UPF0758 domain-containing protein
Amino acid sequence: MRERAYDDELQPPVRAEYHATVHDLPHDERPRERLQKQGADSLSNADLLAIILRTGTQRDNVMEMAGKLLAKYGGLGD
């Protein structure tokens, strides 16, 4: 059995940080709903990619992840 270090006992428990999701956006600001009402021309590349990806990660919601991917790879290819 592993002995706990003195410092371990003094550390507060790590809490999961709340991370907003697309469902936290007002209904009419969500990418999928805007696509249905306004068409693809009204959405950014990040919005369209977020729709394709469908879900994010524990670290990034889908909109953040789409933006990071576009930044990392220099946008969408021609």
User: Anything to note?
Assistant: The chain is about 40% helix and 0% strand. Residues 18-71 form one domain. The chain has a mean pLDDT of 85. Residues 62-72 form the longest helix (11 residues).
